[in-house]
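User: Here's a chain of 390 residues. Predict its fold as C-alpha cells.
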Amino acid sequence: MSFNTPNDRRGTNSSKWDLMEQLYGVSSNDGLAMWTADSDYPTAPCVIDAVKTAAEHGVFGYGIEDDAYVSAIQWWMQTRHDWAIEKDWILTTQGLGNGIALCLDVWTEPGDHAVIFTPVYHEFALKVQKAGRVVTECPMKRQDETYVLDLDDAQSRLTGSEKILIFCSPQNPSGRVWSQAELKAVSAFARKNGLLLVSDEIHHDLVFQDAQFVPMATAAPEDAENTVYLTAASKTFNIAGQRTGNMIISDPTLRAAMRKKLATLDYKPSLLGVTMITAAYSPQGAVWADQQIAHLQENRDIFDAGINAIPGVWSMPLQSTYLAWVDFSGTGMSHEEVAARIRDTAKIAVSQGPTFGAGGETFMRFNLATQKATVEEAVRRMQDAFADLQ
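Assistant: Prediction complete.
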C-alpha cells in the first residue's frame, strides 16, 4: 500500500477520526480529519511484518528492553542524526507526553514554573497545568516568514520560580528547524537561569530536504548535565498508539533520578512497542522514512500553493513536521468566524491556533500526513469556504 492508497480509518478506534465530531463538530461521514498529529497511511512494511511475526507467535507476555531494541536506537541516532549515544543512556517511557509529565514530577514541585516558547504544542502547557505547576509563556517573534527566539524578552518574563524549560525541536506548530547557534543559545539560557532543559525532539526525522536537524545533545554538549533529550519513533512511523518513547539522559545523576521514578511506578515497556521500534529503526525503515519525506514535501507544496491563493490567508513555509501552520489574520475575520467557515462550510477538523498559546490567536494547524487526494480536496474546500474573498 502506497502513501496515496485510500485507507478508511473511521470506526477503528482512531481518536483522529472517531472523535472529530465530538471535539470539533465535524462529522466523519463527510468531513476531513486534519487535526491531531498522526498519519492516515500505514506504517513501514518492515514494522507491519514484525507485528505479523509477533502475532503468529501468539504469545504476548512480559517483555524486556533487549539488546536488539537498544542497539536499533543507537544505530538510528548515529546514522540519521550523527549522534553517538551509550546504551545505558536510553530509558523507555509511555510516550513523550508521559516523558514530559515524568520530568515535571521528578524535577519540579507543585507551584514551580515551567518555561515554554509560544506558540507551541498545546500539550506542553496542559502537562504543566495538570501537574499543578505554572506556565511561564515566552512568545517568539515573527521574522520574515518564520519565528525566532527572543531570549532577552524571555529573560524579562522570568519570575525566579522557574525550574524547567520545555523546548520543542523541530518546532511544532511552525515547522521551524533551529540552527546550532540557536540551540546553543537556548541551552545557555537554561543554564544561566538554573533551568533543567527538556528537549522534545519527536519530529526530528520529519525534516525536509532544504533543512538540517541538529540534536540538542550535539549542539550543546557542554550542558549535558542539565539536559534531558526526548525522542520517539512514534511520529515518523505512525506508531504513537503503542505509547512507547525514549528519554536519552547522558548525565548519570539525572539518569539515576529518572530510573528511580520509573522503578517506583513499576513501569515496563510495551512488548509490541519495543518490537515495532526495533523494526522501524533499521535500514528498511530508513528507506521508508525517506520515501515519506518526499510524499510530505509534495503534499506541503500542493497545500501551500492552494491556501496561499486565498486572499488574506498564508501558510508558513514548513522546514519540518507534517503540520501546516496557517495565518488568517489578513482576512480581517475573527477567530470564531474563521473557525466556523472551516468547520461548517469546509467541513474540516483542524487544531485551533489559540490553544498553542500566545501568538497563535490568528492561526489554524492542518495535518498533511495523509493521501495527496485528501490534501487536494482540503484545498478545494478551503477555497470554496473563503470564495467571497476572491
